[in-house]
Amino acid sequence: MIDFYKNYLENYYKLLTNFDRNKFSKLENILSKFIKNKKTIFIFGNGGSTSIASHVATDLTKMCKAKALNLSDHNLTTCFANDFGFENWVKESLKHYANERDLVILISSSGESKNMINAANYCRINKIKLITFTGFNKNNNLRKLGKINFWCNSKSYNKVEMTHHVWLLMIVDYIIKLK
Q1: Could you give the CA distance from residue 52 to residue 61 in angstroms, rounded to a whole number?
Q2: Quick one: residue 128, left, alpha or beta (phi over 0 = left, psi -120 to 50 = alpha)?
Q3: What residue segments make up the domains of the chain, in order of their start?
Q4: Residue 46 half-sphere exposure, CB side, CA atoms within 13 Å?
Q5: Phi, psi at residue 45, to the nearest 5°?
């Protein structure tokens, strides 16, 4: 049992520290500009990634004084999913709330979630700045659509989600430190 935990944590350490510092620097600069200019940052995910999106949006709002939103309210989600299909609820949310001055961050462990891909395509068509966080296969479809993509080299949902969570909160903490 001890070997399992040791190997598990060593694997997490490798995942967490395997990132492109230039991409993180670019995202920090983008977020800082959006916060300074009081532009809106939208963050979406599915399943566990929805919780990550909500947590990050809350911390950006409270700690960084950002206009950050996670539109995963169950009424809105089920309304749009019922009327437009689950694969379109994020896109429909963006249609109602976002514009070309905003930033959208999409989190998908597999990078193959139809609702995230449809939202990403909507962002591209409408010139909305898009950042993606994905895992699993390096050539996943969502990764190809973001201006900047943060990819976690794992096929484990928990490891991908927790790596995304730490990376996003690390950026939030860095922005807080800059203030």
Answers
A1: 14
A2: beta
A3: 29-178
A4: 20
A5: -160, 175
CA angle 5, 59, 47 (to 5 degrees): 55
- In total, the chain counts a number of residues equal to 179
- The span from the CA of 133 to the CA of 115, in Å, is 14
pLDDT averaged over every residue in the chain = 95
In this prediction the pTM is 0.95
DSSP 19: S
On the CB side of 50, CA atoms within 13 Å amount to 10
How far apart are the C-alpha atoms of 45 and 52, rounded to whole Å?
7
CA atoms within 13 A on the CB side of 134: 23
pLDDT of residue 174: 94
Helices (H) and strands (E) in the chain, counts: 7, 5
* Token pair for 130: 């898009």
Convert 82-110 to b/e letters by CB count within 10 Å (16 or more is b).
eeeeeebbbbbbbeeebeeebbbbbbbbb
Query: Tell me, which fold does domain 29-178 have in CATH?
Result: Rossmann fold (3.40.50)
Residue 179 has pLDDT above 80, yes or no: no
